[in-house]
Design goal:
The protein has 767 residues and is an alpha+beta fold. 48% of the residues lie in helices and 24% in strands. The strands form four sheets. Strands 17, 18, 19, 20, 21, 22, 23 and 24 form an eight-stranded mixed sheet that branches. A six-stranded antiparallel sheet has the order 12-11-16-15-14-13.
């Protein structure tokens, strides 16, 4: 009893210690899980704001409507208090604020003094408005030269973090709060401890970083009780998430378990004492006699077996059962001799059946390879040995099979991975099939298709793994030929697309060039763009034919990307001339593509200047309207084309660029189709009559790519120029000449105004 009591006491101590350690570990894992989830939630809060202000910075760099962009940013994020666009000198260019917040005209903030790269977000220290924390963030706004032109400064209210800390559950009475690296509480359910100046180190005796680094934290928490705590740093800002759970929630189950153990030990002690007394008198002595009787049992000497027990309890019944068992064993040995004779007959029949099965497997034209349940090779039929180049290797393991039978990943020298082998997967109970395996039989490599299947017994245990495989050399050859033909067809289609654009086929409603027939046509609304090199003939006279082709290809290769980038496509090249179509509704794509082409040409000309070559000038004409697209030609040769008055007028506008000395002209059809979302620089310069038509077409100049001084001067003189155009159309020559003269005086680079001044003066001289 003393020994049992000692064992029970030691067991109790060990159980309580184990339960306490287990409970602490469970609680620690729970706290770490909560801190990880909370840190992730808080990081997402900051990352969403950072992502939004980065996107807003990119929009501000490309769009002039600053106030609308700031209004959208403030509307999307209810946590934002102030949004300001501040120039490099501190001037507030644009701002949006929540109702009731001040709007300073000059901003002085520490974040504005930082030098930031593109998309780099600077984060300031946490500030407080009373007991309500906020955070300032700044991101630079870059121009096209990657130089900062302004800073986007936002102030974020951290109330959402306070709401999140309240909603996170930690046990029954635990809580979560956020601090910065110095221990200033940023968000806590008790807002009295959230204000500025609160010192967490003085309150708890340890810093947030110490809490985050320690495996187990046990201290008096912010609300006075003993707490088990865990911490984690955030990724986006230098803050910490602290999770605290009352220690009573941990210790109470352990104390209850100890009381249960004490009661169990007392019960077991009483039970053991009574069992020992009962066992000594009723079990031990009768068993001794029974053991003496069993020792007399010898093979075949059944008459010597006898156990004399007259008790009417279980041991007496056991003695009688033992006596009966001895008699039954005698009968069983006699029956076993008869069964051995029958088994001999059955074994002979089984041997015959196995031979028939082997003959059947050898006749199958598919290779068969069998492993037993341990993964040892068991059987391979004749076809398998022929394909593999050898028979069963008894000592080979599953991992050695690719090396033993020289099995490779098809088309490589890499041994076939064990985990992908169908026979290995069959040992795991899987049914699988692969066709990317080949074996080297010593003469050639044979590609195989392999199936793997497990064989189970009645209990569902795997007895064998079987792999069946066949030579797929012919199939592999046909597949390679098919892939080669497919590649050739794909290359052929790509080559056809260079002559007949895919977009042209789509407009005709054709899936492939094969479907196109002579006479296919469709009428569509679109914008047509013509672009041509000015004075190309005189330029080509100075070059050899090879240099001329190099010039044309170099020019055309630079003009095509701006067209495709703005959802257009080149219909055809006519020498140095480009004809492009823009099928999308509206003319903005065509105008923006033309502006991009002129800017690309400026970059190209700078390269030519550096190489000592002459600059290239081009003229671009754009018209919008109905065109007919289709195919023309004969039985042996056909081509795609676009016809209609819209095309003719676009070509005429391109030629007019030489007359007026401007690079880009559009018709009033295109002008009316513009969305004007982009601030184009446009002015009316002429009225032309379309050949065969009585109506006149207004011609507009787009001067977005003019040098900045010329562009600004044209904008400043546009009212005078347009008034001069009106007077010119009314044939009031002196007044028109005066307006054009004023334009030329303010802008000496205005070639169109000079032309109209000369025309007006000629009309005056002719009268």
């Amino acid at each position: 009893m003393l020994l049992l009591s000692g064992i029970g006491g030691v067991g109790l101590v060990m159980a309580m210690s184990f339960a306490l350690l287990t409970r602490v570990e469970q609680a620690q894992r729970g706290l770490e899980r909560v801190s990880n989830e909370a840190a992730l939630s808080f990081d997402l809060f900051v990352l969403e704001i950072q992502s939004d202000i980065r996107a807003t910075s990119a929009s501000l760099a490309t769009t002039p409507n600053d106030l609308e962009i700031l209004r959208g940013l403030l509307a999307r994020n209810r946590s934002l208090l102030d949004v300001q666009l501040v120039a490099t000198d501190g001037t507030v260019l644009a701002q949006r604020n929540r109702v009731g917040r001040p709007q300073p005209a000059q901003q002085d903030h520490p974040l504005l003094d930082l030098t930031l790269n593109r998309d780099q977000v600077a984060i300031g220290d946490v500030g407080f408005d009373g007991q309500f924390p906020y955070l300032d963030l700044a991101v630079p706004v870059m121009n096209e030269l990657e130089l900062p032109v302004a800073t986007l400064l936002v102030r974020v209210a951290l109330d959402d973090l306070w709401n999140q800390t309240i909603n996170i559950r930690v046990g029954q009475q635990g809580y979560v709060y956020i601090t910065d690296v110095q221990g200033q509480i940023i968000a806590f359910r008790n807002t009295r401890l959230q204000g500025p100046g609160f010192d967490l180190v003085a309150q708890l005796g340890r810093s947030p970083s110490h809490i985050a680094q320690a495996d187990v934290n046990f201290y008096r928490g912010l609300e006075g009780g003993w707490m088990l705590a865990a911490g984690r740093s955030l990724r986006t800002v230098d803050w910490y998430v602290i999770v605290e759970q009352p220690a009573t929630e941990l210790l109470w189950p352990v104390l209850v378990g100890a009381l249960v153990w004490l009661g169990a030990i007392a019960f077991v002690g009483i039970l053991v004492y009574n069992v020992l007394r009962f066992t000594q008198g009723r079990i031990v002595m009768p068993l001794t006699r029974l053991t003496e009787g069993v020792s007399n049992l010898k093979p075949g000497q059944w008459h010597l077996v006898g156990v004399m027990l007259t008790t009417d309890d279980e041991l007496g019944a056991l003695a009688q059962a033992f006596q009966a068992m001895a008699l039954q064993l005698q009968s069983s040995f006699v029956a076993l001799a008869d069964n051995n004779a029958k088994m001999q007959v059955l074994n002979e029949a089984l041997s015959h059946s196995e031979e028939q099965l082997r003959q059947f497997l050898e006749a199958i034209p598919v290779g068969l390879f069998v492993l037993d349940a341990t993964g040892t090779p068991y059987y391979a039929n004749e076809r398998a040995q022929s394909l593999l180049g050898r028979g069963v290797v008894p000592n080979a393991t599953v991992a050695q099979l690719p090396e033993v039978y020289r099995a490779y990943v098809i088309g490589t020298n890499q041994l076939y991975p064990m985990e992908r082998q169908p026979i290995f997967r069959a040992l795991r109970g899987e049914i699988s099939q692969v066709d990317d395996l080949e074996v080297d039989d010593g003469r050639r490599r044979i590609p195989l298709e392999v199936w793997g299947r497990p064989i189970f017994n009645a209990k569902g245990e795997i007895l064998y793994a079987i792999a069946a495989f066949q030579d797929i050399s012919e199939r592999h050859r046909v597949e390679q030929e098919r892939r080669q033909i497919t590649r050739q067809l794909a290359q052929l289609n790509q080559a056809y697309e260079r002559f007949v654009p895919e977009e042209f086929l789509q407009l005709l409603g054709k899936a492939s060039i094969i479907d196109v027939q002579v006479g296919d046509a469709v009428e569509r609304e679109m914008s047509v763009l013509f672009a041509d090199i000015c004075h190309f003939t005189s330029l080509a006279e100075q070059l050899t034919p090879e240099e001329t082709f190099q010039l044309i290809n170099s020019f055309l290769s630079r003009m095509e990307p701006p067209i495709t980038r703005h959802r257009g496509f080149v219909d055809k090249y006519i020498g140095d001339e480009i004809m492009a179509l823009f099928p999308q509704v509206g003319a903005d794509d065509a105008v923006q593509a033309a502006i991009a082409m002129l800017r690309q040409l400026a970059r190209y000309n700078r390269t030519r200047q550096q190489q000592g070559q002459a600059e290239i000038e081009i003229g671009i004409g754009i018209n919008t309207g109905s065109v007919v697209l289709g195919t023309v030609g004969g039985r042996q040769r056909m081509d795609s084309t676009v016809m209609g008055d819209t095309v003719n007028l676009a070509s005429r506008l391109e030629r007019l660029t030489r007359t007026y000395g401007v690079p880009l002209l559009i018709s009033h059809h295109t002008f009316l189709a513009l969305n004007h979302e982009c601030p184009y620089h446009i002015r009316l310069i002429d009225y032309v009559q379309v050949k065969g038509k009585s109506a006149h077409v207004a011609v507009f100049e787009v001067f977005d790519v003019d040098p900045k001084p010329v562009r600004q001067a044209k904008l400043a003189t546009r009212p005078q120029f347009e008034q001069g155009m009106l007077l010119y159309q009314l044939e009031q020559w002196p007044e028109a000449a005066a307006q054009f003269r004023a334009c030329c005086w303010q802008n000496s680079g205005d070639r169109v105004a000079e032309i109209y001044l000369e025309r007006a003066q000629q009309r005056l001289r002719s009268e």
